[in-house]
Amino acid sequence: MSIQKPKGTQDLLPGEVEKWQYLESKARELCRRFNYNEIRTPIFEHTELFSRGVGETTDIVEKEMYTFLDKGDRSVSLRPEGTAGVVRAYVENKIYGEPDVSKLYYVGPMFRYEQPQAGRYRQFHQFGIEAFGSVDPSIDAEVIALGYTFYKEIGLKEVTVEINSVGTPSVRTAYREKLQEFFAPVKDQLCKDCQSRYDRNPMRILDCKKDQKFGEDAPNILQYLDEECQTHFESLQEHLQGMGVPFRINPRLVRGLDYYTHTAFEYKAAGIGAIDTIGGGGRYNGLVEQIGGNDQPGVGLGLGLERILLVLQAQGVEVPKPQPLDVYLIGLGDAAEKEVTKLLHQLRLQGIAAEKDYLGRKMKAKMKSADRLQATYVAILGDDELARNEITLKKMETGDQVTVSLADLTANAAKTLFA
């Protein structure tokens, strides 16, 4: 029996991987415009980073992490999300010493041991950004706007933004008591996980899909915001309105991570069944200190690439195809074939996408290969052309042919081919 890929993973093959490259290139280009710089962190970290950073009461830490002992008996985990690792790198490398706000982005795989379903894999991929050093609500709005702009520019339709304020630790302490009072009469009817959350973090009950019916009339956290939180939340809304980013307030939005303060937000899009969240994020003002650094505010987002591709497909949005091959070289005869190998390399060094046959096939099969590769030109070099120091260029779309000198082609291939 042949070895197969692990459950919840996928092979990204040619023809499909180009869609991923397109999303990643759009993310990088957008971050350039918004002045975010790339950071790359390890795929695995010490487990303590996630238990301290993500939160011990989250499903991620309790159930979903790939955790194991390395050969030194140290507990390490594959990263289940991107923020904690970026914060660790921010602290360890003393990026907080820079005079400006630190604006970083990442693209890469994350790992969670959960039941695979539409758009959700055990190895999945995220594009995320993090901004450190500012408490200004305008940067919360910038982060939300960057994500919304990304969705719009790749062609997603009907993307909605939901926002909420989850307050500060002091606000949540008061809100926690109100939630416990509210859920006390039905505590025994809650699922096993939420019965545990009742004492440790009752806000997480609002995020539970099984017990949503019990929380329909739960107290609204927006009613318990202090003046600081209220001012921050109102200012965020004003900035989003000024940017033209449509949003709606969802007071039940708490996100699945423990580190958020003030702003929490999600992006929704139809097209992948009951699960309609395609990304989200929020502010995490205490996380840098919690992970061991000087207290620095932060805000960020994470967008799931698998879910984005599913929605693009469901909405019938065509991802731009990669550029076709510029030229396919065909040599007829031993001497011409040797010259083609040399010419192929010279063209590639000039930035021309070029290919030739490596299987010793006949002319007809070579032309079919050029057609499959969607080559713009076929360049045919026979022994007679070689003797005249010439080569024949055939435009595949029209069939038009022209003979040019090899010297012109090698001196300036782009001008000769695409003048």
Name of the level-1 CATH class of the largest domain = Alpha Beta
Rg measurement, Å = 28 Å
Distance between the first and last residues' Cα:
55 Å
What would the CATH topology of the largest domain be?
A: BirA Bifunctional Protein, domain 2
- Largest sheet: number of strands, sense, barrel closure: 8 strands, mixed
General form: elongated
How many helical stretches? 15
Secondary structure: helix percent: 25-40%
Give the low-pLDDT segments.
none
The fraction of residues assigned to DSSP E strands is: 15-25%
Topology, number of strands: 16
Strand order of the largest sheet: 1-5-6-11-10-9-7-8
Which CATH-level-2 architecture of the largest domain?
2-Layer Sandwich
Could you report the average pLDDT, rounded to the nearest whole number?
A: 89
- Structurally, the number of domains stands at 2
Helix-strand makeup class: alpha+beta
CATH superfamily of the largest domain: Bira Bifunctional Protein, Domain 2
Features:
8-stranded mixed sheet; 419 residues; 15 helices; 2 domains; BirA Bifunctional Protein, domain 2; 5-stranded mixed sheet; alpha+beta; Rossmann fold
What does this structure look like?
- The protein folds into two domains: 243 residues, Bira Bifunctional Protein, Domain 2 (BirA Bifunctional Protein, domain 2, 2-Layer Sandwich), CATH 3.30.930.10; 86 residues, Rossmann fold (3-Layer(aba) Sandwich), CATH 3.40.50.800.
- Helix content is 37%, strand content 21%.
- The mean pLDDT is 89.
- The strands form three sheets. An eight-stranded mixed sheet has the order 1-5-6-11-10-9-7-8. It has a five-stranded mixed sheet with strand order 13-12-14-15-16, sandwiched between helices.
- The longest helix is centred in the N-terminal third of the chain and has 18 residues.
- The chain is elongated.
- By secondary structure, the protein is of the alpha+beta class.
- Keywords: Aminoacyl-tRNA synthetase, ATP-binding, Cytoplasm, Ligase, Nucleotide-binding, Protein biosynthesis.
- One of its GO terms (biological process) is histidyl-tRNA aminoacylation.
